[in-house]
Fold this protein.
Amino acid sequence: MAQDAQANLKESVLQALSTVTDPELDEPITELGFVKNLSVSEDGRVSVDLVTSTFWCSPNFVYMMLEEARDVVSKLPGVKEMRLTLGGHHDSDRINGAINAGKSFSECYDSEARGDLVELNRMIRTRALRSRLYSMAAALMRSGLVAEEIPELSRQDVTANGDTFVVNSRGRMVPITDPADMRRVARYLSFLDGLDRTTTGLVVWELDGNPPPEDEFVSTLIAGRLAKANFSLNAELCRALLESRLNREEP
Amino acid sequence: MRQGGLQPPQSHWIIQTESFCGPTEARIVLKRLNPLIRPGQGGLSLIIAETPDGKKQDIFVVDYHFHIWNAAKENWLRPDLAKGWINCFYDYTKALSPKEYVWDWDTYAYYGEEKALHDVFGDGHVDMAIFEPQTLMYFYHKGFSNVDAIAGYVKKWPDRLVMGSRWDPRDGEAGKALLEEQVRKFRIRPFQMRNTKLYTAEWKEENGGMSRGWRLDSKEAFDFLEKNRELGINVQVAHKGPTVWPLDKDAFDIGDVDTAATSFPDMKFVVTHIGLPRLDDFCWVATQDKNIYAGMAVAMAFVHTRPRYFAEMMANLLYWLGPDRILFSADYALWHPKWVIEDFLNFELPEDLKKEYGVDLTMEIKKKILGENAAKVWGIDIEQQKKTQKNDELSKKLHLQPGTIRVGEAAKKGKPLAR
């Protein structure tokens, strides 16, 4: 592989990894600092070293994250082999062995698990959706919309204009120009657009695409606000813990 | 002013806007110009908080969750796990403490009983501390933190240190017998031996294999709860950890605490670290079950370096639970109660959150959180305790005396602190 191609592949691996989130924090593993090392060989063998914020991170959520990382990287054109190494976790050896052998969580944990992670994944993704919904709605309200008009919007009423967004609501065009609010809208839309759904509304409360019950939008937002507070507390704690961890000298 | 008295806290707010989460979620870092540790000096007991309007509140501090642990290398049974455990604790400490409060690793691993008492009661402003054991016999030869560490001290200072034990349904009848014995030995005050710590992610050798935890809604656990009820141990301090069988379920799910709290409405359930990383579940469940309490161990420590996150957490707790079911803890030795309490007294909810959530964190509410709420849960008569503790042996040993802490604007401007 030419040097350029090798560098390009490394770039696309990093790009792919940036789409993987820690399910409990709803933030990309690349931004959290979990990707410690990444190497791409001349013949397309990729090796990624990962670290989590503590020795004790729950094996189930860790496994979800690693499986997703394995899958998004393995399917990139030019990747011949993908090897993940999770370091400094209480079950590193077992998890690494199973992940690199292509095993599922229940195969990895056999008698200690009763099933795969489908239900857990659904639970945590639903929270992420609701948390992002609150953040987006708060952004729209800061830009001049009132709460009542948000559930009336369809997905198509929000359009990207470069990095900014424009909301077409009740006969007027409302721009979203604050950078942090733009990011909040973008995060919700990227989640929404990734859902397999038949509904067309902007406000979605369930992974199947359903909106919250009619007239319950405000209580929906209050629940979403709590989910958002939880994610941001967890993420901040994990960032702080990882920083401590990486700067600690082993006794 | 007594010579060598407490220096003014001269702390000030430095606002650092971090790009990662936008201006409304700016991280505000409270920087301390003068370290407040004064080795060898007496601390404050029965503190009085004075706000800029001249109002004074006497604050009786009850810390519901403190530890004396031994994680020194000699005590490591399974070195990888034992080391992994204490290193993780150390990272928590470093992550959220003011730098001058971080000890060297060896001291942290085993600081001993005398230092603990000095830090908590001597420097730490705490009037009563409730012990919560965490045994971890799978990791440590003699356990990580068990009742033996504190037994002698509880006998010596039963009005300061409160004995709490633990149970695990996998211990069966022997575990119940031990609880009976502990009640007989330590119920030397009405509030002694009223609580047990329940660490559901405790690893244990079982039938030649290894079990990674248990659930509070199992039949075996309910048998234990019945036994606790019979023994008058009516405060259950539930603590979730990262593993529990089966591993495909969410180990942090507090659904089992919900079930137990509904089935034992006469008992009180304190959920340690407010259910984090499941604060949302915790708030839902605690809104339903009025016998569930928010245990602020770990959560309190956000107040110093992450005040905006702390503010959001407090706003949510006040919104969902109200001010009467939130219990203070510095979680010593994870964090030193001195700075946690001082920062909490100085902390104010930002206006935007007060408005959005419709709540406030007044000095009266802080007073509840710091002691009154726990006193009600444990049946502690604060007025009686104040009388008992004034000039008690521990006060003399640690040179304790009542003192005033100026909070709010006065503290920010660095005005002298009255004694």
Chain A has a mean pLDDT of 95. Chain A touches chain B through 50 residues (CB under 8 Å). The radius of gyration of chain A is 20 Å.
